[in-house]
Amino acid sequence: MRLNVSVTLIGLTGGIAAGKSTVAERFREHGAYVLDADQQARDVVAPGSPALEGIRARFGEDVVDADGRLDRAKLGSIVFAEEGARSDLEAITHPAIRDLTEERIAEIRQRDPDAVVVYDVPLLVEANVQLPFAAVVVVHAAAAERLRRLVELRGMSREEAERRIGSQATDEERLAIADYVVDADGSLDATIRDADRVWRELTART
What is the pTM of this model? Predict the structure, then answer.
């Protein structure tokens, strides 16, 4: 199935603790259909799915538990330790995620031909997501502010927070692909106001 590009498709991304979930929810309140890439990734490896069987074949029986579910901890230990394992995993999961995304966007279009679909993709830059986005929205908060939020609000150690931030694309790499930027460096209210501004601009464009 190929995506019908008459659907207005918006890519939404941002670094960890930038406030992307807040913006996604605000867009939903404005009437957008929000698809969560992380949820898609979980759905494609549901018990009995072709992707899960592909993972089992590549990584062994131990990565599937007694209930037929993916054991993410065991898979992760292999992927982080074995050279080339991550690429092999992505070769299995990325096509499945894309197919599921296209299927769900087509379902939305059938119900609502004028839909605005927001695809919430934390790793849009890193995964090099290739979809016909009408625009890409980046939720931006500086790395120092995101570090503070991870430590003070999520209770993460500074070392773990720095590792998480460092494993993602840089602020500059994300901003380079942005058509619109939501400033999320300040308060929650300020972030929502800026999300509203971007939504007005998006819907005026579409």
Answer: 0.85
